[in-house]
Amino acid sequence: MTHAEQIFDYRFPSVDYPIVTVSRRLAELAASHGWTVETWDEDGLGEASGVILRLASGRTIFLLELRHLIEHHREKGPTVYIDGSELALRGVAVLLAEILTTLGLTQQDAEWFAPAESQQASIDMLKILPPLLPPPHGPPDSYIRLNNPPDAKSEIECYGELDRDRIPLRWIKQYRDGRLQICSYTHRSWPVVMPKGAISSVAEINATSGFSAREISAAEFEAVWRKAQGFK
């Protein structure tokens, strides 16, 4: 077993590519390694859990476990993703060995792993993949707390860090069960989670039926952000 550092703010430079699905539940792995498991709702797939790790080599992996696949498709544990450029450069065998060693597992603990041909598939994909770039934005300028209507079926509160043009830089969603989901442009999920375009002014939001908002301090935003990351 080799050391890995858990990180909370990362987006794969090219595309996430599955390498291996393991037969140990994510909660069990996290407990044995001291990781904090993040949970959120994945659009169309339901409850998801994940951990992002920086390996000793400097490579970053993402462990993703979907409750739907566990309960209805007999998957036993999370799938591990890595950036497609790493797969194209190194191939499956090298990455698989490093990942399993880091997790303290062997190939007997692998429920599935990518075939060797995945390296060429990744090379071909990178040739046609357009760059996914965040919108232009400036430094932080203001912070907002937004309350959705009481009958909202998803998040009930949002916290935002905005630039001077009110483009969100970081975003936090709070759900009815108390779960917090964070996102920035370094997260792989930003195209789905981050609001599109500028955020309306507090006055405009408060003039919309069912919604309310207020400006908050940077300290208040950072406190919620750290709480969502598992810090007390």
Brief summary of the model shown:
This protein is an alpha+beta fold and 232 residues long.
Give a structural overview.
The protein is globular. It folds into 2 domains: 124 residues; 87 residues, no CATH class. The protein has 232 residues and is α+β, with helices and mostly antiparallel strands. A hairpin with a 3-residue loop joins strand 3 and strand 4. The two termini are 29 Å apart. Helix content is 28%, strand content 31%. The strands form 2 sheets. Strands 1, 2, 3, 4, 5, 6 and 7 form a 7-stranded antiparallel sheet that branches.
The number of E-state strands comes to 12
Uncertain runs:
none
**Largest beta-sheet characterization:** 7 strands, antiparallel
| Overall geometry | globular
- Percent helix among the residues? 25-40%
Please give the count of helices: 8
Task: Give the domain tally.
Answer: 2
Secondary-structure element order, N to C: EEHEEEHEHHEHEEEEHHEH
Structural class: alpha+beta
Overall residue-averaged pLDDT value: 86
Give the N-to-C terminal Cα separation. Answer: 29 Å
Question: What is the CA-atom radius of gyration, in angstroms?
Answer: 19 Å
Strand content: 25-35%
